[in-house]
Amino acid sequence: MNSLPIGIFDSGVGGLTVLRAVRRRLPQESVIYLGDTARVPYGVKSRGTIERYAVEDAGFLLRKGVKMLVVACNTISANARERLRAEFDLPLLSVLGPGARMAARVTRTGRIGVIATEATVESGAYERAIRVASPNRDVEIFSHACPLFVPLVEEGETDSQVACLVAEQYLAPLREKRIDTLVLGCTHYPLLKPVIGATIGANVTLVDSAEATAEETAQLLENRRALNQSSSGGVSRFYVTDAAGRFHKIAERILGEPLDYLEAVEVWGHDKLESK
Amino acid sequence: MNSLPIGIFDSGVGGLTVLRAVRRRLPQESVIYLGDTARVPYGVKSRGTIERYAVEDAGFLLRKGVKMLVVACNTISANARERLRAEFDLPLLSVLGPGARMAARVTRTGRIGVIATEATVESGAYERAIRVASPNRDVEIFSHACPLFVPLVEEGETDSQVACLVAEQYLAPLREKRIDTLVLGCTHYPLLKPVIGATIGANVTLVDSAEATAEETAQLLENRRALNQSSSGGVSRFYVTDAAGRFHKIAERILGEPLDYLEAVEVWGHDKLESK
């Protein structure tokens, strides 16, 4: 059981920042990653659709055999966490909780910014989770959707003039709120960390939910005595629902190393074509 | 039969530029529009997936009762046109052909640029269609993918500083090729026409495939004596597969008028949730 892989899933490539952080923190663990690239992005879709897709994604990983699930997508965490917990009987961690808890821990002034996709911001899930994690103090939370950040990252525009201009546009309103902590509430955003950091200012602590999630993943497995004790390093296998070539290119850019195993699969059980 | 609506479909909101052009050219015709917003964007997906989605989209419109189909998405036109013709027995026009034919007609020097999504550029469909439409002359075609244009349009950033900077980045290489004609090979791009025109230069003719398609739609219906003879104006009905609120906002911005009828629907016949 302990030698089973950790299952990590996302709507596309964003969750690879979580995979990267988990691999660094737990090099002996194997990982199976699923990116639902046929239906990416989830961030502009409705709650019902996101729930349905998330259940299909998680079901695929369960059939592959995993010892825990990591929801490496803030949009899925914000919209489908309860549904996933109700459907699946398996340890489950989603990026949103660890990011919110770390923000509550590091803020000094209690003025916290959250940047995320439209669907995550609209769900209000970060605000709720940060308040739950700050039971004995007042916090002020300022959320802002940054819809162009995801396409910028996917096009590799992480330090271009365009990226700086877009960051200025999104972050100027938050700078004015005098926040001292900024949650990168989308797994794509850690790849823009240098630009975001320079724009928001050095006095603001950036909370990278990918790193926070890797830390809690390690704690969860340790508490359940489920860490892989093997001394050989773990392996990563990657599955996508479409366009493996494009994923391959972006994934190698994000991970900074070649992929060992990549396969295109279907995760939607009954979605057959009707032919005439 | 002649009073039946025209069916227009796209992966999202882009095809609304085609609907707008058709409504202007043929105000007496009714139109049903389908935007597959649950699975948008198609432009980064594989040919097989695009074909499958396109067949489901077209099938939905057929069940609603339409007298012809207009594929208002260059990615679908480039990747699924043959498949749609094979599956459905109905007059079918797709944006790619009219745009290519107009480019062949208006170029003086034969040096033509095409800007489109990655999937359209990779298909080579515009190059082939422009060559077919230019049987007696040499043409040189320069294609360039502009992946950030779609998210810019969907976020309403059509004349911002960011839009200008992105346009400069994508169009500078084409300017150097001394093209005299530029095909806007994605239905989102007409909304960036002022920025694209200013960046590429006033000596380059922009071919708006939405307008070209509206013109050929009128010709097709006239040739088949299928124009609506009613003297009252046509009506437009809109269907989306997800997130009707977001579509509504963007659609009214693109069309410049309120939507009469908008409904969220499912187009995938067998894609039911498996509950435990």
What's the quick description here?
Two copies of one chain form a homodimer. Chain A has 276 residues and is of the alpha/beta class.
Major sheet size, sense and barrel closure of chain A = 6 strands, parallel
Overall tally of domains of chain A: 2
**Structural class of the secondary elements of chain A?**
alpha/beta
Q: Which chains share the greatest interface?
A: A-B, 39 and 40 residues
CATH class of the largest domain in chain A: Alpha Beta
Residue stretches of chain A low in confidence (pLDDT < 50, at least 5 long) are: 270-276
* Coarse shape of chain A: globular
**Main sheet: strand order of chain A:** 4-3-1-2-9-10
User: How many DSSP helices of chain A?
Assistant: 11
Q: Which architecture of the largest domain in chain A per CATH?
A: 3-Layer(aba) Sandwich
| CATH fold-level label of the largest domain in chain A | Rossmann fold
Strand content of chain A: 15-25%
Order of helices and strands of chain A: EHEHEHEHEHHEHHEHEHEHE
Radius of gyration of chain A: 18 Å
The oligomeric status of these chains comes to homodimer
What distance lies between the first and last C-alpha atoms of chain A, to the nearest angstrom? 46 Å
Number of strands of chain A: 10
